[in-house]
Structures are given as structure tokens and as C-alpha cells.
Write a structure and sequence with these properties.
three-stranded antiparallel β-sheet, Aspartate Aminotransferase, domain 2, seven-stranded mixed β-sheet, alpha/beta, 2 domains, 365 residues
Amino acid sequence: MKILRDLSELDEYVPGRGVEEVAREHGLDPDELAKLASNENPLGPPPAVEEAVREAAPTVNVYPTALHEDVRGEVAEAVGAPVENVVLGAGADGVFDTVGRAVLEDGDGVLTPSPGFSYYGMSARNLGGYESSYGLRTDDGGFGYDAGRIVDAYDGEKIVYITAPNNPTGTDTTVETVERVADEVDGLVFVDEAYHEFSDRESAVPLALERDDVAVARTFSKAYGLAGLRVGYGVLPDGMASAYRKVVTPFCVGGVSLRAASAALGDDGHVTETVELARWGREYMTENLDAPTYDTAANFVLVDVSPCDASEVAGELERRGVIVRDTTSFGLPECIRVSVGTREETRRAVREINDVYADARGESG
């Protein structure tokens, strides 16, 4: 009897490279590496989170029943939503998966931005669906959201993803664009606001509370510095939130993670400092990199290193101790994505990128 279904059409998610693997590969000291590949918080978590994790350690033998409800309430208060509309997930990815289980049936599709986060399509395919895409390239060679282009690309997909700001380009959009798309398509418009804290844009959360065809997902991984604990949340319309609770895995977020999220929500100053650093860093890179960059509203900068090969540039930077993301897997083989690090890391990255870029173009010396 055949046990596994045919997975030949599915891909594995490929994350940015970690410090340990790069250090082993190149014989480097891990402490001397600057990891700027995964859009993590260079300041780490808020101090209260470290204390909360230590205090939670003796309770890991207990299911976090009440904690789920407590944190949902705290998130609801923070974003101005009724607690009934707030759901939790193992990162924003967990929210995408669970909404997908509630919405997608075998053969249904999702419409995603290109370039964009690969997991949207992966999640749909894992559920027996398919992925179509709409382009973000503009006539001037940049990137931008255009409601008309999204609507033109729509062909009955059940979920339309809008990432605001977008990964890997940093492109932002407006609530008006989201609303126009929702008015014109028949599916769910799912707004991924993983990087929302770094943007000046208004959130789509009010739309998710007003309409039955808009949903929002966010994460504690970026601005709150909890990437290793996997906590995300969604703000969903009434009926969808109820359906979510029917298909979500039991205790989808662990107790330690929930206590950390609660502590992080109580430290607005840490988020403010993180956002200020991100805005400084993206401005510093834009002004000081010799390679062209794209406008960004996130905590990273997309850098065009053409005519050089991005994988070769990223590889040489690794050998120099700076880890960046080669965006070939995003369909951008001419670009690298550079996360904002500490001020020291960001300045170091700019120096090394400029040196490698000059060498690759034969301009050194």
C-alpha cells in the first residue's frame, strides 16, 4: 500500500543561512559574523522577555490553556479589535496555514505577489491547491502595488495575498488599494503585515473588522524580536475566526512563547527603538551603498548588484563574515537583500558590499 502522497511538485522552504553553518563552512568565528539575511531584530528581545522565559521554564509540563485566552486578549487590546476576532498561530506562517485549512478545498488557488514570500504558495500546494501570481514590477523598473494589475491577474482564486510591506522588495501599499481589490475579487484578501511596525502606513485591521473578505496576519518575530519562539496572530472576520478555531491545532503556541509575547507587548519602548534603528539603517544603506537600492518600508533593503551574480556576491560576503540573502529564490538573481543590523553591523555590511561589488565589476585598485 502506498503511504505517502505524491509530493514531487512540492518544494522545501529555504531560509536564510544561519551563523553556525556559515561559520563551519568557511572556518570563521561565529561571534565575528554579522547575520543580515533573515530580517531579525538586531537588538534581540525586550529584557522583560528574557525574564519571562526564565520564569516560564518550570511550567513547560503544563498545557497553556488559559494563556492562549490571556494573550489573545492582550493582542486584541493592542490592535483595537474584539478578542473574538483575534487568533494565534505558530508565527504568521501558522496563521496562513490554518486559514488555508478553513478556506481552501482541493484544487483551489491563491494569488500571490511576484516577487514575494514563497510560503504562501507552498502552504496552498500543501493543501492540494495551486498558486498564481501578479507582478509588482513597475514601468520605471521599480516595484509597486497596483490594484488594477492585481484584479486583472485574478482568475477565481480563493485567497489573494498582499504583503505590506512586501518581502523581499520592501514595497508598501495603502488600505485603499486593499479595499479596491477586495471590492473587485470574490475571494479572501489576506494582508500580511509581518513588517507593519516599520511602516508609516495605516493597518488593514479595521477592514478585517468591517468586512467578511479581508483578513490580516502579523508576527512577533520581527519588531518584537521573538523569531525563535514562533508567535503570530491574525485579525479575522467573525465567521472566519470561528472557522479558524475549528481547524487550528491544539495549543498551537507553547506556553513559553505565549509568556514571551505577553512580556513583549508590555515594552513599547523596545519596539520604538527597533523601528528607529531600522529606519536609520535603511536610510544609511540607501545613501552609502554604491549599488542601486529600492525604496523600502521594512527593516531590510533590496540591493541590485547587477551585472554581478547575486549568489557569487553573497558567497564572497559570507567569506568576509557578512551573511546576506541571495534573492535568486525570489526570482531576483540580480539582487541581494540586506537586513538592518546594529549600527556597527550595518556600517560593516556597507563597506564589505561596496568592496565586493567593486571587485566583481573589476573596479578595485
